[in-house]
Amino acid sequence: MTYISVHRLTVNTAKTKEIVFRRPRVKYFHMPPAIDSIEQVDCCKLLGVFFQSSLKMDSHVQYILSQCAQMIYMDI
Fold it and tell me: Which of 20, 32, 42, 49 has its CA at 20 to 30 Å from residue 26's CA atom?
């Protein structure tokens, strides 16, 4: 039995995303089967931090740089 069924929780599939973290240089990577109603993504934002499935920080750094550029433009 899963945690969801034991505690009678409902999952809002419209707001739920699945991300599978993996090491970038692994030769053989077995992707787990996707759940029908939940979308699999490569990058997601959680509490203001972007997480990528490859464990890189490219998306988060790009987001922070764009936020800084907007703040500098507004202060001038």
Answer: 49
